[in-house]
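Per your request, structure below.
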């Protein structure tokens, strides 16, 4: 007895034995028992994933992540995927709540920074402004950029 593969409910079996085509492939029937594969799958039985990222980086501007039967473009931190799903555009962090900056927020390509008025400098938190003159008994806090370098990992699905 044959078992039916695949979870597609609109699977229309041709004149093939059931279970010939995988991943939603449609059986063409006949002697060849070959399959018409949906986008993202290939092979005589649609059993292989298409690595869309292998061709022209999947059309992605930055990172392309292949997955089983599909793929996705991804953007590094500070960028978001554009409406076309391919390009990466800068996120204007200053748009919301002044980027968390106490004084001035400066949007940059892929990041942002806070600025303080004259006589003040940026605290180590990268957002708060503190007086330039150090208080007695306190050492200056080394102010550094808040820009956290987070390595962007592409989660690759394997099987
Ligand atoms: Ca930005």
């Amino acid at each position: 007895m044959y078992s039916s593969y695949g979870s597609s409910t609109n699977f229309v079996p041709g004149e093939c034995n059931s279970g010939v085509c995988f991943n939603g492939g449609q059986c063409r029937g006949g002697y060849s028992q070959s399959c018409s594969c949906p986008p993202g799958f290939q092979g005589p039985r649609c059993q292989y994933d298409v690595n869309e990222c292998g061709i022209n980086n999947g059309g992605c501007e930055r990172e392309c992540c292949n997955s089983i039967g599909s793929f996705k473009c991804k953007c590094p931190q500070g960028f978001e995927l554009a409406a076309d799903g391919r390009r990466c555009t800068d996120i204007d962090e200053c748009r919301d709540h002044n980027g968390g900056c106490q004084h001035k927020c400066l949007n940059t390509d892929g990041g942002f920074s806070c600025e303080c008025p004259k006589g003040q400098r940026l605290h180590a938190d990268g957002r708060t402004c503190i007086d330039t003159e150090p208080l007695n008994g306190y050492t200056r806090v080394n102010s550094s950029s808040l820009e956290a370098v987070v390595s962007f990992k592409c989660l690759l699905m394997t099987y």
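Residues 78, 90-93, 107-108, 110-112 surround calcium ion (CB under 6 Å).

Regards,
D.
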